[in-house]
Design goal:
3-stranded mixed sheet, mainly alpha, globular, disordered N terminus
């Protein structure tokens, strides 16, 4: 905390001096504004101090030992001052006098500061974690050695020991803030709490050597010498026994004995204090638009109807006799659609998809990322609660972009679940192209190279699913049905997310609606709905973003006619990196592409 406070003081002094200069340096020549970009660099540096896990994730290893308790009132006061200070800095500039790149940076940055300040007015810190996201799960991935935390040197191991030790105090603070939520009536639903408890218990073991957190000392790299190996092995045993396992045990006991009886019987935010106000904010936050929940709900209904009609056409084309629900059952249960025997066969099938699209990628993208890419099976400890996902590469290229596939039972892995569309979304050209190209673009200030907006990032990835036929996929009607199923899934989200958090659907009704309209098991639908319950608004970003990108493509294609280049459109869309949809729409046309 002292280091952060000291840095903040330094930046405040620098900023005071900078503020005196800004009004007279509005860059009438439209060259890169050095003062503005210096401010962005300072912001990024201070942000990494404040959010060290974010730094680790982006490959910045300077703070790998740190683990602040970000949800405490005092830390949030620090964050509020941080955002207000930088909002004051950037507000000195006249955006119309900045060049294009700086203007985009200004628009993104100012909105980010304003939204961050507004977000700190709510009490989401009364729920420090849930069953889908939060530090107890993240610690498992980092500490297993398979995540972003490096274990290449003795110093890396020492850094993790400090972070792992600090988790004990973090856990105690989490209990304090969960109790604040209990007192205020700001609590998780009961159906969520019963999912958290076994996750916490899964981290407990009577034998230190069997702990997930002991894994790194069983795989020492050659760079760690014998003396350090002995020292670190002892230190890891002590830390796991005295701090890590007891911390998880305290969390599990608290959730079972104190929190569960006080948990909510409702399903969404409308049941919580100021829930309606919070949800409207989160809709703006995740969609990066000013669309209302009601508008989004209507869009969802229209998309469900449109995609459903396309599904019926595929069903008819295959010669299947029966209604859509019967067709879903056929796709789920016919043995021809579960051909795999081992996890490696599943991974090979995804690698084959990559090979099939490679020739057409060259026609649709002029610029490809330099960052390496791998396909891996999700680690066993988290596979049961994980979805397929993409982990970005490190900035220096030492860690590749990784497409993780959870495979609990290869013999039940269904090819009609949308394997082709899943790869296009999570891997190539979806998240891997978008995130890698953004990180590799040195013309962007760092806060933009490593920023994330779900409506843009997930919208791009969902849009990429629609490129399947152009990339040589979806030749099999059942695979195309899987792609339509994935699109339907995102459309359903618009309906159920809004309904859950405005109180017009219960958890059970939302699960039933999802099962009625797509080929999903009750277990799968339950996991999805419970995800939306704890991440209000996040699920809206996919479809809202994809619709915007498709509308921009259609707009430019119509305006430019035969001169329209899809590769140029994609390159232009990706080159400026992630940004709010409103900023994207204002700026994508300014290059004439």
């Amino acid at each position: 905390m002292r280091k952060i406070a000291y840095l903040g003081l330094v930046l405040l002094v620098l900023g005071a001096g900078m503020g005196c200069q800004l009004m007279s340096r509005n860059n009438p020549t439209k060259e890169t504004n050095k003062e503005l970009n210096a401010m962005f660099s300072q912001y990024y540096e201070e942000r990494m101090h404040l959010f060290p896990l974010e730094a680790t994730s982006s490959g910045d290893n300077r703070f790998n030992q740190s683990l602040p308790v970000e949800f405490t009132d005092s830390y949030r006061d620090t964050l509020r001052d941080f955002y207000k200070r930088y909002l004051a800095f950037v507000s000195h500039y006249e955006p119309d006098k900045l060049n294009r790149n700086d203007k985009i940076s200004y628009d993104i940055f100012k909105r980010e500061m304003e939204m961050s300040i507004e977000g700190l007015s709510f009490h989401d810190n009364y729920i420090p974690f849930n069953q889908f996201t939060g530090l107890p799960l993240t610690m498992g991935q980092l500490g297993s050695g398979s995540g972003n935390q490096p274990f290449k040197t003795a110093k890396d191991y020492d850094n993790w020991l400090q972070r792992m030790t600090a988790f004990s105090a973090w856990a105690d603070s989490a209990i304090v803030y969960f109790r604040k939520g209990m007192a205020a009536g700001y609590v998780l639903p009961q159906s969520i709490v019963v999912k958290i408890i076994p996750q916490l218990n899964a981290m407990l073991t009577d034998t230190v050597e069997k702990s997930l957190f002991f894994t790194p000392v069983t795989t020492f790299p050659d760079s760690v010498g014998a003396a350090d190996r002995s020292r670190l092995t002892t230190a890891f045993k002590t830390c796991i026994r005295q701090y890590t396992i007891p911390a998880y045990s305290r969390l599990a006991s608290f959730m079972q004995q104190e929190y569960l009886p006080k948990a909510s019987k409702a399903s969404g935010l409308s049941a919580l204090p100021d829930g309606d106000k919070v949800y409207k904010y989160l809709v703006r936050f995740w969609t990066t638009t000013n669309r209302s929940p009601e508008e989004i709900y209507k869009t969802g209904l229209a998309e469900v109807a449109r995609i459903g009609a396309a599904m019926d056409s595929i069903k008819t084309a295959t010669g299947f006799n029966g209604d859509r629900k019967a067709f879903f059952e056929f796709l789920k249960n016919d043995p021809r659609f579960t051909p795999y025997k081992t996890p490696e066969e599943v991974l090979t099938a995804f690698r084959n998809i990559q090979a099939r699209i490679e020739p057409n990628l060259k026609k649709m993208f002029g610029v490809k990322p330099r960052s390496p890419f791998e396909i891996r099976q999700t680690e066993a400890f988290r596979a049961a609660s994980a979805s397929a996902e993409y982990n970005p590469p490190s900035e220096d290229g030492s860690r590749p972009g990784i497409f993780y596939v959870p495979i609990l039972d290869a013999t039940k892995f269904n090819v009609t679940s949308g394997m082709e569309s899943l790869f296009l979304h999570e891997a190539i050209p979806g998240h891997h192209y978008q995130i890698s190209l953004q990180q590799e673009n040195k013309d962007l200030p760092k806060f933009r190279r490593f920023c994330w907006y779900g409506a843009y990032g997930e919208g791009w990835a969902l849009y990429c699913e629609s490129l399947g036929k152009e990339l040589g996929l979806y030749t099999d009607p059942y695979q195309y049905m899987g792609a339509l199923g994935d699109e339907m899934h995102r459309a359903i989200r618009l309906v159920v997310d809004v309904s859950l958090h405005t109180g017009t659907m219960t958890r059970e009704q939302a699960i039933a609606y999802m099962m009625e309209n797509e080929a999903i098991s009750e277990q799968g639908a339950t996991a999805e709905i419970e995800r939306y319950m704890v991440l209000p608004g996040q699920a809206l970003s996919y479809k809202i973003g994809a619709l915007k990108i498709r509308s921009l493509r259609d707009k430019f294609s119509k305006e430019q006619g035969n001169a329209f280049s899809l590769a140029a459109f994609h390159d232009n869309l990706l080159k400026d990196g992630c940004m709010p949809l409103e900023v994207l729409e204002q700026n994508i046309g300014k290059n004439g592409k």
